[in-house]
Amino acid sequence: MVLTSIKNPWIKQLRKLRSRSYRHQQNLCLLEGTHLLERACDLNYPLEAVCATPDWIERYGKLWQQVQTQAQRVEIVAPTVLEAIATTVNPDGVIATLPRSCLQRPFKQPVSLTIALERLQDPGNLGTILRAAAATSASGLWLSEDSVDLDNPKVLRASAGEALRFPVAICSDVGSAIAQSQAQGLQVVATLPQASLTYWDVDWTKPSLIVLGNEGAGLSPELIAMSDIQTQIPLSAGVESLNVAIAAALLLYEAQRQKMGFFGQ
């Protein structure tokens, strides 16, 4: 049986998950697209529900069989219904829901390289930073609770599924996360335009915590004061700043380069 009405009570509930407050209330996040569903299945996460169009089921029959055993509820829906649930313009035919608690996992041990993000607001930036952190084998990420939600559908898509497996901790006080990292022997590195030390002159072979701030306002003075090292990313004349996700990727890859011994000439 194919659900064809967006007025169906269950469909109405799924549509509400586009709202941050409703996701929190229901403790659910929305997974849009085949790639995110495959990643959730690979991780054996407890899917709450999955809905798919007939065309999608025909293309991904094996995955559909898998989710029928892994999800509490599965439904076949008309393309118009799926479009009404989705936050994307052209959904690929499947949407699932997952407990929000699955998105927070313990850091990799021993902790060698982590990131703390203060008041980050753009979901694309957070997703990109998660991808870069996973690609460079970072230990984890601290995210201030006044940042964009980790379960924001745009974050999940921008992370290419890394948000489902990369270790992330939500913290009410980034300063406490910094103090905890320092107590574990990590050096805290903050980026500032006026710093005299360039980022490639930092000794990244030491366990490190990279602290990055809000896209517009940057880091708060309190967190800057807590940092052990202040460094800058050189910019050509007339260029005001770099996107925070690009800055994070540069620092992460420089740390990886030094740790792997690729010093070059």
Question: If you had to describe this structure to a student in words, what would you say it looks like?
Answer:
This protein is of the alpha/beta class and 265 residues long. The protein folds into 2 domains: 2-103, Ribosomal protein L30/S12 (60s Ribosomal Protein L30, Chain: A); 113-260, SPOUT methyltransferase, trefoil knot domain (Alpha/beta knot), CATH 3.40.1280.10. The protein is 37% helix and 20% strand. The protein has 11 helices and 12 strands. The chain has helices at 9-16, 20-26, 34-42, 54-59, 61-70, 79-85, 123-135, 153-158, 174-183, 221-226, 244-260, and strands spanning 2-3, 28-32, 49-52, 73-77, 94-99, 113-117, 140-144, 168-171, 187-191, 197-198, 208-212, 229-232. It has a 7-stranded parallel β-sheet with strand order 8-7-6-11-9-12-10, with helices on both faces. The chain has a 5-stranded mixed β-sheet with strand order 1-4-3-5-2. Helix 8 links the parallel strand 7 and strand 8.
Features:
265 residues, alpha/beta, 60s Ribosomal Protein L30, Chain: A, Alpha/beta knot, 7-stranded parallel β-sheet, 5-stranded mixed β-sheet, 11 helices, 12 strands, 20% strand, elongated
